[in-house]
């Protein structure tokens, strides 16, 4: 489960994270808080795969950005490092500058609190274009934009268009969840 795993008086930085052994444990730090996440479930990985495939296929036809998946460090500020399940950026220069167009986190029982709280606020402060929180149990997506006070909750169709794209990506959510979860 994702949770702070260090004393509250310690302020964690990316160099602290990278000093850990390569043990397969996902570590992130946001605003000095260390988040530790165990390996995701199979269902989690299946949904990540489906979003990655849909985005990758669409971006191949509409080359407006690059998509990647974790494990992969993203530095949006000098003192924070995150690993969104899936993320999109315009080009390598934009990623080096900490400019992410889309970040996707798939909820797990131990991560929901941080994905909806600490991470959401962080992504909004850093002006990530959109932040999607994927709820496997409810089979819906919460879409957050930097100025939002409440999410847009989507259960049928999710549409996204990055700057410079000639048209939108449309994801049929029941189909995506059906492919990945067998529902």
Termini, distance in Å? Answer: 25 Å
Mean pLDDT: 91
Structural class by helix and strand composition: alpha+beta
How many β-strand runs? 13
Share of helix, binned: 25-40%
* Strand order in the largest sheet: 4-7-8-9-10-11
Rg from C-alpha positions?
16 Å
Per CATH, the superfamily is tt1808, chain A
Backbone shape? globular
List keywords for this structure.
28% helix; tt1808, chain A; alpha+beta; 183 residues; globular; three-stranded antiparallel sheet; six-stranded mixed sheet
Your description of this structure?
By secondary structure, the protein is α+β, with helices and mostly antiparallel strands. It has one domain: tt1808, chain A, CATH 3.90.1570.10. 28% of the residues lie in helices and 30% in strands. The strands form 4 sheets. The protein has a 6-stranded mixed beta sheet with strand order 4-7-8-9-10-11, sandwiched between helices. A 3-stranded antiparallel beta sheet has the order 1-3-2, covered by helices on one side. The chain has a two-stranded antiparallel sheet with strand order 5-6. β5 and β6 form a beta hairpin. α2 packs across α6. The longest helix has 20 residues. The protein is globular and about 45 Å long.
